[in-house]
Amino acid sequence: MVAVDNLLTGRMTNLEHLQHEPNFAVRQLDICEPFDCGHVDYVYHFACPASPVDYSTHGIATLRVGSLGTFNALEIAKKYGAKYLISSTSECYGDPLQHPQKETYWGNVNPIGPRSVYDEAKRFSEAATAAYRRYHKVDTRIVRIFNTYGPRMQLNDGRVIPNFMKQALRGEELTVYGDGKQTRSFCYVSDEIEGILRVARSADSGPINIGNPSEFTILECAQQVLAVTGSKSRIRYEPLPQDDPKQRCPDISKARELLGWQPTIDLPTGLKKSLEYFRLAAGVA
Ligand SMILES: NC(=O)c1ccc[n+]([C@@H]2O[C@H](COP(=O)([O-])OP(=O)(O)OC[C@H]3O[C@@H](n4cnc5c(N)ncnc54)[C@H](O)[C@@H]3O)[C@@H](O)[C@H]2O)c1
C-alpha cells in the first residue's frame, strides 16, 4: 500500500503507528502534478483540504486538488485498470432545501461564495469521476462523507467537535455561531471507515451517503461536550458565517439497504472515546 500526501494539511505523526508495516510506504508529493507510484489495484482519493479553516486558507489549492488532482488520480486508475473511490462530501448538498439529504438531491450551493472553493471542487470531482466511468470505463465509487470526528483531528481546524472539546477542556467559552439551533450529524471515525470500505467493496458506483443520521443542534452538541469533559465553560454566541448550512443530516437508507451498514457509536460514546486524544492535544492531560 502506498499513501501519497503533500502534507498541506496532513501530518506525518498521524502515520507513525504504521511506520513498521512491511507493506506500507508514504510518498510526499502533490497529486496536482502527474504522478505514478507503480501498479495499484485500488486508488482511494482522499486528498483535499477538508476543514473550513483549511479550505479557506488554501482556496486555490482546494480547487486544484479537486480538479487537476482528481484527473491525475483517475489517470492512475485508468492506466492500471484499478478500481477508484473518491471521498466526496455532504457539502455537495450546500445549504439543503431537502431534509434529510438523499443521494438523489442535487443540492443548493452558492457557486461563488466563500465555501464554493470546497463545495464546487468536490462537485467537479464527482463529475470527473462519473465521466471517467462513462467514457473510459474506470470502475469508480463515490462516497459522500458527512461530518466525521475522532482522535487525530487537528485542534484548530474550525470544525465543531475539536473546537468545543478544546474550549471545554481549557475552560474557555464555547463559541456558538448564530443561535445554535442549526443542526449537524456527527459520525465517529471507525463507523465512517467501515462504511467507506463497504462502499469500496460494493458493486454500486454511488454516490452513497456515509454519515450518522442522529441529528443534533449545535447547542445540544455543546451540552454533550460539556457533559463528557465535566467542564463548566459558558457559551459565547457569535454571528453566523456566510452560507453556513442550517440543517445537515444524511438519509442513509441506501447504505443500509445496499451495504448493511449503519453507525454503531452514538455521540456521547464517540466523545468519550476521543477524550484522551483531545486532552493531550489541548495540553491539559
Ligand atoms: N472529516 C470530515 O468530516 C469529512 C467530511 C466530508 C468529506 N471529507 C473528505 O475526506 C477526505 C479526508 O478528509 P480529512 O478530514 O481526513 O482531511 P485531512 O486534511 O486530514 O486529509 C486530507 C489530506 O490530503 C492531503 N492533501 C491535500 N492536498 C493534496 C495534494 N495536492 N496532494 C497530495 N495530498 C494532498 C493533506 O495534506 C491531508 O493529509 C477529504 O477529501 C475530505 O474532503 C471529510
3D architecture notes:
By secondary structure, the protein is an alpha/beta fold. 37% of the residues lie in helices and 15% in strands. The chain is built from eight helices and twelve strands. It has helices at 52-57, 59-80, 116-136, 160-169, 189-201, 218-229, 253-259, 267-281, and strands at residues 2-4, 25-27, 42-45, 83-89, 140-145, 148-149, 174-177, 183-185, 187-188, 208-210, 215-217, 235-238. The longest helix has 22 residues, at 59-80. The model has no long low-confidence stretch (mean pLDDT 94). Nicotinamide-adenine-dinucleotide binds next to helix 2 and strand 4.
Question: Structural class of the secondary elements?
Answer: alpha/beta
| Envelope shape | globular
Poorly predicted runs are: none
Strand order across the largest sheet: 3-4-5-10
Q: Counting H and I runs of at least 4 residues, what is the number of helices?
A: 8
The major β-sheet equals: 4 strands, parallel
Cα-to-Cα separation, first versus last residue: 34 Å
Helix content: 25-40%
Bound molecules: nicotinamide-adenine-dinucleotide
The total strand number stands at 12
Mean pLDDT: 94
Proportion in β-strands: 15-25%
